[in-house]
User: What shape does this take?
Amino acid sequence: MNRPIFGIVFLILIFGADVQAADAPRRTIKIAGFGALTGPVQSFGINSRAAQHAAADSINRNGGVRLADGATANIEITYSDDGCNADRAIALVRGIERSDALVATGRFHH
Assistant: This one.
């Protein structure tokens, strides 16, 4: 194969891969949070939820997360109120465990 044709084939392969990745649907990374949105320490949960949403918004606004396979993903945050109640917090964690969330963040305050 002569060099000009080899170069053209190489460029087609490179740009074809980029077009394929750009056409791929964006994925979603789900992060489930929990904390006290009500109760005596609600300010901790409210601030934690705000910080997580602000971080996700900033990441998503800047193009999201580049995954190992070249695809990109947005971060989606859900945040649930444990009401400063141990039984509710445990139930939330068990529910998150059964969900499609990648990770759970939270802290039970008593």
